[in-house]
């Protein structure tokens, strides 16, 4: 099976450096978090900006759309998490509680909770169903900034610069801490939920078995350059995707651990690819590259 | 007929059409609600209330079917509500405001401009003067209208008064002049002498017209200006205006006037320059200005200005404001009482305690000595804040290397500056230290051992060098005392106090204790002196002990696994790192911790809450208090391990440490285990007592445990256990024997070192608990709690407490020779232990236990044989029997003289407690054995069965 990735579109977001790009839950839209304190909603397939959400006091760092696409939650350097109403573009709630800039934010599957990870080493769980402005729980196990947060149906996966990924299993009521040796910039579940893809600051993407904590694979070659690179798997769980400081999107074969492709934009850039997002159903990738968002998709259908 | 009738009548007009009976147009009566009012244009009128009609809209209501619509207030972000004020016009129709309405609107001259002369006439009649070239009223007349006059003036005018005239009957000229003069005088009185007298100019005219009368002069009203400011009366502020901006009044009263033979010469206006009659003035062009005044304090600068001179002159005259008179009788002043004077030697002292269970923090209170605040060191502040003060000691950087002389010196200098921790403080800190990190570091620091040791020549040499470096007025005579003082040095952070203490040591040596007063500063109060003396005495007591050994053994290298947690942790971390390097992720890098999600989180994730109702063990662990005796306990057990390498001591200490370990475990376990296990716990509790008695250590931790135990399991549990206790005794007795055997043997071996520890303990007690009633009360409290407990369990409180107050176990050991007992009970293991020096202690213990267990089977309880002449706890009957056979062995006699302190007889009710101890031990052991020694499975299982049986019994 040979997959050919084709660059489909390059969107100039016009909102400064794009800190993060996120597909919506159904993959129809995407969100870009800009350094100009704006959050933009796009139709990436047509490259049309649908709405601009302004209200953050500083750079927007991350965003997540709710399952029914009615709400957006975003976080930023202004230490606040903002819950937006998509249609009206007004902030529904502004959650302040973190003592530091917030790196990452996620809805849970039902979009009833928001999990935010901050540079104050804290992960906070917010109940957005209620009107409470206080977090319902703190996860203060991390000894350094929390770089990424992922939420599955019963788990919360946090990655921290203290070199550890922590998986809070709500069902079991246990915390599994795995030491990765170096600062972890991103940790995400695979699609099947059995493994964890961990981006380390030492320039290695590791595939960790979720249950045992064993190392299943290492993916290296890309340039980390102390950037907070994100990584993911593709839709079929067959490839590992990671951003890189050389402005290319690196893709490895999951099993053979070999580099399959290095995707770049139309023109060479000096900007690194930091944030990326994978379409929930198809092999369509979005990645930020400086002020732009690049979009690739599989050209040929896999046999 | 009809025709004839027709003919007879003449009809005029057209007859009406016959009425159709069926559809008679019934005229509906006009209802009220239908009576609408319309205006001339056919529009619906409002209601016409002002113009006579009444129609109030729908059903004679206004507006809606529902009648009057209340005024609505609606305000939103987009459209803000305006402030609505109702006017009468709102309730009027247009007609009302029209020309002939009730409130006609139109442009009219306001009242002021209406010709007042024509007031009263309905409407001005337009008089047309057709004679003028311009028809109509003259324009000028229209424009210039008289101002409004008051009614009074109008009336006066009607009476013949004219403006400019006075009121009253006509006067002759003379009369007029007279009145005028009178008026002048009055005016003068009113306005002071500011205005110069106006000369009556009419005087010079001839008195010709006697008959001619004049209207009186108009009365010129003088006006008192209403006060419109808050200044004092008569005050006028300085004018801020500069000269050019100011308004120069040219028509002012003359600045200067003279009178020259009935003619007044006056100089009017203001001239520039210096007048002929004026003194030379500096500032002729200037007015008084605020900027020319000095507002700052300082030596008074005379500003020579007219104003100041004037004011000062007028002030000095009568010393009061213008227009004021000095009061004849003065107001009474309020009497102010001065605050009481403090005695000269008063020193505000406040002793700070953490709680009443802690001794007052001495150094803190000292820091405010002489009423003056001293510079606090970081250590002092840490102490105040109850913080774990982590001074980085120089030798800590090289924990494994023997400290050099230089590092010693450095540490010494630091010490002199009060930066190094004192020995005492360290102990206090240990109890507070929540993380054992710093403590462990200290433990690993070998330099402590070296620094305090007298015995080793190398170290004493090092100390000598130190002393040479930091000699203090040669208070030391021999090496021993030098070393001793070297240790002493670290006792007081206050250098002055330290010096005094050193001096005091010398005095003590010479037997002149009273000299201390002579070296104490005069500023110290009596109480301070006394306190210091007591302090010194206690400190000396501590030093008369073989401190070197004590200190040396207090700290040890981290080899004991039981308390090298930190090193283990660090090594684990290293291991993890190593594992990561080797890419061995998995078990090594994984850590599993209990974590409790909040209930709301579970709800939102649609997950049932895990582990509902479980107690969080970590929380309770944290709540356990640490005390100084913790460390004491630990160190003592460790100390024996270290002090001498003899195997006996090793055995002993290990057994002790094991016991203490178990107790620690129990402490934490207790909270988790259910109440159903209370029986087992009860036994362990008893073990606790037993353990204490054998080990002879009063530990705060244990006391805490007791309290917490009572709290957790309450009265009833202990009561139930009491019930079961009797049933258990048979079982336990056997165990007692075995356990006693072991304990006693171990304690015997360790008796010498234990003795020392005992004394030290007393010393610590005396230091930390002395001179404060609170500590006494605390003791009492604990005694009370123990008394309650013992009542519940069935023991005499005194027996529980005995070991705390005095040192009764010494009594036991003095009398009882247990070594021989052990030998006689054929427990060869003991002998083996003594001979084989490197045996695993666990194995030894287990073997011992099993052996004794075997012994138990053939033992028959025959008590009270030796009870009459024995002190201390009752020995297991079997043992007693065997003991009776054996004579007092020589070993016990050898041991006896070691005890220094008084031997206190002890009541003899110990067997039960012993038994419980055994029980606990057994349970533990059996678990251990199960793991380690599988070949003894059958025996351990036997134990287990037994314990199970006990559980059932409870």
TrEMBL record, chain A:
Keywords: Cytoplasm, Repeat, WD repeat
Name of the protein this chain belongs to: WD repeat domain-containing protein 83
UniProt xrefs under Pfam families: WD40
SUPFAM superfamilies documented for this protein: WD40 repeat-like
GO cellular component, one term: cytoplasm
Gene3D superfamilies: YVTN repeat-like/Quinoprotein amine dehydrogenase
Subcellular location: Cytoplasm
WD repeats, residue ranges: 11-43, 53-94, 95-136, 219-262
PROSITE patterns in UniProt: WD_REPEATS_1 (PS00678), WD_REPEATS_2 (PS50082), WD_REPEATS_REGION (PS50294)
CDD domains reported for this sequence: WD40
Family classification: Belongs to the WD repeat MORG1 family.
GO annotation terms (biological process): mRNA splicing, via spliceosome
TrEMBL record, chain B:
GO biological process: mRNA processing
GO CC terms: nucleus
UniProt feature, compositional bias: Polar residues: 190-200, 720-754, 848-868
InterPro entries associated with the record: DUF1604, G_patch_dom
Chain spans, region Disordered: 1-28, 114-134, 164-210, 720-757, 848-869, 913-954
Domain G-patch: 148-168
Comp. bias (Basic residues): 171-184, 923-954
Family matches, as Pfam families: DUF1604, G-patch, HTH_TGH
Name of the protein this chain belongs to: G-patch domain-containing protein
Native organism taxonomy: Eukaryota, Metazoa, Ecdysozoa, Arthropoda, Hexapoda
